[in-house]
Specification:
The chain is of the alpha+beta class. It has 18 helices and 23 strands. The strands form six sheets. A seven-stranded antiparallel beta sheet has the order 3-2-4-1-10-9-11. Helix 5 packs across helix 6.
């Protein structure tokens, strides 16, 4: 069974965050821990890392947040000079220990580990072409590891060495369709790579003699590295201790078409991230300014829904001259899951996360700026809370266009039935949410707000224009159908290099069905 969704956590979900490091005199496990901590927003279901000392590769992973998975005891045996790390939210493959990453494989004399951010679209075809029985692998990341391992074994390379994995990557990567930013390592090298559309981000940084890869630039800042550049669409960056990075280009030129996910600028990326050389925070401020130009309204206060709506609310207030104020206090200690056994308890879920500042709201006309409405559950409850706190009017402004089409590239809304804007027009959504007015930013203004309009974006969830052909059978559990008897934790558990296999956790852990 897949993870069961918190009915009042309406925020879009990303696939994962990845990190890699080679060289330098600092303990790489501790730096990887810090890097993953900076990428925690990209996945909260599981975390893990793989470390090599040049001879052996050791993997540790577990369910939970980075701070729950790692401590001094678990980091102590992870000794080496190169490492990769991963923090996961499931998009293909359910939320179980067996699907936590990095994925580990041994192939003859070789060992490697892999971390994946994104979602493949030809997963079922690859599995079928490879002759895999249902349940052999349960995630697209696991599938890629299997393809690499199989290639290395068939190449009949029995002697240890770094060339076997590199050759396998050059062979396997061109067969993959969809979104992927991978970090892959063997005992001597770390590889970072992006799909030919660059749908998911990845950047390269330097810390003295060490080289670092990360999904977002703040992870570089956290470990004291300086950003060098973004990994290009379709590029493989090879990192090896004591050497400058080198690049491989396994994809034909006609497949290279940069299409970074536009939602990164709306919600996913941290505000202190730089994408396409642009500040995400400043882009969000510009989104608020553009919303005022597009949908002005008379009001007494502009407020943002913490945290992602706040920069845009500042922009809206600046452009309009309407005072910016705080309307909601967010409980920063609440987890991302909530046990809600009854409708009454479910109705309290949003109130656990947010509490209105009545003195700022009562008797006022409020503009509420948020990043998106996906299923509408959170905003419906927030509007009710603001009304109860005495708001005279509530006007909702959104920094994304209506999400009408499913995403197949790493965001966890792959079913049109889940999307409010696929069922209702804007007037219908306004009535459902109970707001006095509702406006979504249009796609053109959103593209302009990035400051990198011509760099290339995927806006398929807004427009239905997919940069890659997607099969109708794609879904989170595409590899798990018929595999209910699969043994949890079998992935890599036979290898002695997996340090600790925890007792199995319930797949549904503390989530609530919609």
């Amino acid at each position: 069974m897949g993870p069961v969704r918190d009915p009042f956590d309406d925020s879009p979900k990303e696939a994962c965050g990845v990190f890699g490091i080679v060289g330098g005199g600092d303990p790489v496990a501790h730096l990887t821990y810090l890097g993953l901590y900076a990428l925690q927003h990209r996945g909260q279901e599981s975390a893990g890392m793989a470390v090599s000392d040049g001879e052996s590769l050791t993997v540790f992973r577990n369910m939970g947040l980075v701070s729950n998975v790692f401590d001094d005891r678990t980091l102590a045996p992870l000794v080496g000079h190169l490492a990769i790390g991963h923090t996961r939210y499931s998009t293909t493959g359910s939320s179980t220990w067996g699907n936590a990453q990095p994925v580990y494989r041994s192939a003859g004399a070789h060992q490697f580990a892999l971390g994946h951010n994104g979602n493949l679209t030809n997963t079922a075809k690859l599995a079928a072409d490879h002759g895999m029985l249902p349940g052999t692998v349960a995630s697209d990341s696991d599938l890629v590891a299997e393809l690499l391992s199989d290639h290395m074994l068939k190449a009949d390379v029995d002697e240890p060495g770094p060339e076997a994995l590199e050759a396998a990557l050059l062979e396997v990567l061109p067969r993959l369709d969809g979104a992927f930013s991978f970090v892959v390592m063997d005992t001597e090298r770390v590889y970072g790579m992006r799909d030919p559309n660059g749908l998911r981000p990845l950047c390269l940084g330097r810390k003295g003699d060490a080289w670092v890869l990360a999904s977002e630039s703040p992870a570089l800042d956290t470990v004291g590295a300086t950003m060098v550049r973004e990994v290009e669409a379709g590029e493989v960056v090879v990192l090896e201790a004591g050497r400058e990075p080198r690049s491989l280009h396994p994809f034909p030129p006609e497949r290279i078409d940069p299409r970074l996910c536009l939602f990164e600028f709306v919600y996913f990326a941290r505000p202190d991230t730089r994408l396409y050389g642009q500040s995400v925070h400043h882009a969000r401020v510009r989104q608020g300014e553009a919303l005022w130009e597009q949908a002005p309204v008379e009001a007494d206060m502009v407020m943002g829904v913490p945290e992602s709506g706040v920069p845009a609310a500042e922009g809206y207030a600046r452009a309009s001259g309407i005072p910016f104020g705080q309307g909601l206090v967010k409980n920063r200690y609440i987890g991302r899951t909530f046990i809600a056994p009854s409708q009454e308890m479910r109705a309290l879920a949003v109130r656990m996360k947010f509490n209105p500042l009545r003195d700022n709201i009562e008797g006022r006309r409020i503009v509420v700026v948020d990043d998106s409405v996906v299923r509408g559950t959170t905003q419906h409850q927030l509007v009710r809370m603001l009304r109860e706190a005495g708001a005279l009017e509530v006007h909702l402004r959104l920094t994304s266009p209506p999400v009408r089409w499913p995403c197949f590239f790493g965001m966890d809304f792959g079913d049109t039935k889940e999307l409010l804007a696929a069922r209702l027009d804007v007037d219908g959504i306004q009535r459902y949410l109970g707001v006095d007015s509702l406006a979504y930013i249009d796609v053109e203004r959103l593209l302009d707000s990035t400051g990198a309009r011509e760099a290339g974006f995927c806006d398929a969830c807004f427009t239905g224009h997919y940069p890659i052909e997607v099969p109708v059978t794609v879904g989170k559990d595409i590899l798990e159908e018929g595999a209910s008897g699969r043994i949890e934790g079998a992935n890599g558990a036979a290898a002695g290099s997996v340090l600790d296999q925890p007792s199995l956790l319930p797949a549904d852990d503390a989530r609530t069905a919609t």
